Every structure is written in C-alpha cells, then in structure tokens.
C-alpha cells in the first residue's frame, strides 16, 4: 500500500494513468497492509539504511517478510538483496 501512496503522490493528477497502474499492480501483485509488525520492521530497516525514507524501508521490510522482491528504479535500493533494479 505504501507503493500505491508513492504512485499517487507522483502521478495522481492523471486519474486514467493511476487507474491503469493500480489495475496492473493488483493483477500482478499481492497487496499487503501495513500493520504494527511491519511498521516496526520498516523502522528497523530504516535505521540501517544510508539513504531513502521510511516508506522505502517499509516497502523493503514488507517484501522481505513476504519472500517477495522489490522492483524499483530508486538508486538507494540498488545494492540491497531481493531487489530487481530497473535503470530509468
């Protein structure tokens, strides 16, 4: 859900684009709500990160907990395990 929030921040003014992106995400991904356990795990991850924000840390912690990968073009994820980095 943090990813959806980030996309909304960046592309939310274009409702059609957002609807298409959300539809694709929902069909290709499993949406995982952020609960207390994930919030704490994200905080722990963020403590160890040199760059990036709390949302990035929560996304990464959620992926690790759920044995998933993070697909991203954000450079601060580039060297982390379980990340598929996409050059932009």
Plain-language structure description:
- It is built from four helices and two strands.
- The protein has one domain.
- With 88 residues, it is mainly alpha-helical.
- Strands 1-2 form a two-stranded parallel ribbon.
- The mean pLDDT is 89.
- Helix 3 crosses helix 4 (54-65).
- It starts with a helix and ends with a strand.
- The longest helix has 14 residues, at 15-28.
Describe the secondary structure blueprint for this structure.
Elements lengths: L1 H10 L3 H14 L7 H13 L5 H12 L4 E3 L10 E3 L3
Parallel strand pairs: 1-2
Task: Name the descriptors.
88 residues; mainly alpha; two-stranded parallel sheet; 4 helices; 7% strand
Q: How many separate structural domains?
A: 1
Assembly context of the chains = single chain
> What would the average pLDDT be, to the nearest integer?
89
Main β-sheet, spatial strand arrangement: 1-2
Q: Give the C-alpha Rg.
A: 13 Å
Approximate helicity band: 55-70%
Task: Please outline what is shown here.
The chain has about 90 residues and is mainly α. It has one domain (about 1-85).
